[in-house]
């Protein structure tokens, strides 16, 4: 089939979406199974936080280089190679486990390898949406990607919890490898157009190092774009400080009950599916910045804070549902703003830098969150005292209560971040201050 006769537009995007959905299920199953394994081996929140750190840190570290490469080469090729690398890391872990040599540091190394290639995946997929679908469908397409991630969050823990009994970790990882192969085959079926060169694209050309820093110049030269990224920097810091501790908190509070952990993770997925479905049908608010900032406020108050309560599954489930319910609104609205404002042929560079600025706080939070739990909050709650008595009515007592207190505090801080975004005109009025990239230049009358 000739490349240009392959499906594109919303049909082509939907085909790619289906492949990613299946792949996300496999990845989620492996992540769930290896989380249980790591906790049983170490029993430390810090160890689980380090697994997340080594998987996420290279995504941030290599983002500028990845963005420059994405704008230089075929974006479809980048997407295929990224999926292939993730599959290879799973194969390595499977071999180590089959031979009885798997250690916790192997998860760090495999996560770093897969994360390095995943740094190319986000700018490639985000920029591909801009060339595949019409502008009016940007929010909907982004919500569909979020919907796939959330739906896999429902299916993956359920399947993993069941499959652990019948096929074990090895069988789960074998299924994961098969899903990566399916995602790659699906990508081969579609046509992803390369963007036309814009004036900004010509200005960005140079050697690889110059192009790697272009995204910083572009964003730092625009107060509204920079303001949006600063808001996301702080919201990711507060969210990750808490979410890094979700698995160890629930396992500590339930005596290593993987069914409870799987149920909470499933409710994260259900909330994300509900939010993604709403945005996919609705298309999001006309003023997209409201979707970003109001979503942050509501998600922090109704989602992050209840996750720290000591009442058990009912509170954790409600918090999990609400946490993810607003994520498609936040991310879909924000992504649509950037896709509409930034010329497509520089979106790889700009989006990669944007991701670095917004998420560089997350690896820091992963390390700090684990240490805060193990060294500060858990011992403080165990000893009692004024702080423990103050928060105990909300977070309860016993193992995991210190981590619950961290959830409550970070939820309050997250709501403050969203409110602060409304206080700055450059952020609040970003859509009015920035012209769309396809807006014709206005010529003066002769």
Describe the fold and architecture.
It is a single chain. The chain has 446 residues and is an all-alpha fold. Helix content is 81%, strand content 0%. It has one domain (3-190, 208-431): Up-down Bundle (Growth Hormone, Chain: A), CATH 1.20.1250.20. The chain is built from 21 helices and no strands. It is globular. It starts with 8 loop residues before the first helix and ends in a 13-residue tail after the last helix. Residues 441-446 have low confidence and may be disordered.
Which key terms come to mind for this protein?
mainly alpha, 81% helix, disordered C terminus, 446 residues, Growth Hormone, Chain: A, globular
Count of discrete alpha- or pi-helical segments spanning 4 or more residues: 21
| Percentage of residues in helical conformation | over 70%
The total beta strand count reads 0
How would you characterize the largest beta sheet?
A: none
- Give the domain tally: 1
Quick synopsis:
This protein is mainly alpha-helical and 446 residues long. It has 21 helices and no strands.
SSE topology:
Blueprint: H1 9-42, H2 45-61, H3 63-72, H4 75-98, H5 104-132, H6 138-166, H7 168-187, H8 199-204, H9 208-220, H10 223-243, H11 246-254, H12 258-282, H13 288-307, H14 313-325, H15 327-341, H16 347-359, H17 361-383, H18 386-395, H19 401-422, H20 425-428, H21 430-433
Helix pairs in contact: 1-5, 1-6, 1-7, 2-5, 2-17, 3-5, 3-9, 3-16, 4-5, 4-7, 5-16, 6-7, 6-12, 6-15, 9-16, 10-16, 10-17, 10-19, 12-14, 12-15, 13-14, 13-15, 13-19, 17-19, 18-19
């Amino acid at each position: 089939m000739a490349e240009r006769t392959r499906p594109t537009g919303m049909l082509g995007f939907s085909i790619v979406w289906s492949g990613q959905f299946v792949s996300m299920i496999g990845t989620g199953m492996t992540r769930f199974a290896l989380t249980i394994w790591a906790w049983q081996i170490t029993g430390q929140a810090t160890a689980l936080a380090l697994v997340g750190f080594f998987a996420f840190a290279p995504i941030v570290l290599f983002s500028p280089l990845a963005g420059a490469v994405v704008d230089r080469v075929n974006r479809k090729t980048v997407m295929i190679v990224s999926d292939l690398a993730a599959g290879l890391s799973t194969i390595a872990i499977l071999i180590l486990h089959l031979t009885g040599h798997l250690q916790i540091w192997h998860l760090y190394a495999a996560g770093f390898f897969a994360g390095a290639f995943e740094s190319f995946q986000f700018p490639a997929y985000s920029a591909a949406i801009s060339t595949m679908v019409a502008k009016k469908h940007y929010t909907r397409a982004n919500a569909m990607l979020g919907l796939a991630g959330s739906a896999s969050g429902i299916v993956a823990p359920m399947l993993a919890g069941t499959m652990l009994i019948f096929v074990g970790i090895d069988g789960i990882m074998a299924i994961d490898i098969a899903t990566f192969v399916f995602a790659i085959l699906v990508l081969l079926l579609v046509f992803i157009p390369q963007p036309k060169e814009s004036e900004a694209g010509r200005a960005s050309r140079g050697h690889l190092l110059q192009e790697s820093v272009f995204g910083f110049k572009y964003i730092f030269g625009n107060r509204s774009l920079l303001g949006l990224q600063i808001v996301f920097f702080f919201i990711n810091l507060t969210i990750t400080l808490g979410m890094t501790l979700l698995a160890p908190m629930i396992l500590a509070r339930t005596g290593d009950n993987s069914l409870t952990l799987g149920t909470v993770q499933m409710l994260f997925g259900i909330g994300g599916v509900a939010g993604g479905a709403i945005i996919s049908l609705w298309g999001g608010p006309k003023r997209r910045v409201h979707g970003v900032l109001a979503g942050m406020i509501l998600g922090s108050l109704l989602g992050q804070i209840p996750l720290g309560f000591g009442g058990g599954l009912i509170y954790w489930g409600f918090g999990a549902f609400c946490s993810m319910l607003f994520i498609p609104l936040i991310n879909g609205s924000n992504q649509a703003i950037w896709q509409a404002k930034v010329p497509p042929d520089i979106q790889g560079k700009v989006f990669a830098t944007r991701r670095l600025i917004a998420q560089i706080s997350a690896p820091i939070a992963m390390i700090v969150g684990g240490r805060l739990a193990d060294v500060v909050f858990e011992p403080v709650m165990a000893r009692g005292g004024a702080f423990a008595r103050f928060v105990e009515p909300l977070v309860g007592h016993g193992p995991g209560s210190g981590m619950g207190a961290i959830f409550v505090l970070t939820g309050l801080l997250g709501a403050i971040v969203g409110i602060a975004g409304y206080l700055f005109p450059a952020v609040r009025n970003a859509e009015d201050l920035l012209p769309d990239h396809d807006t014709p230049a206005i010529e003066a009358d002769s």
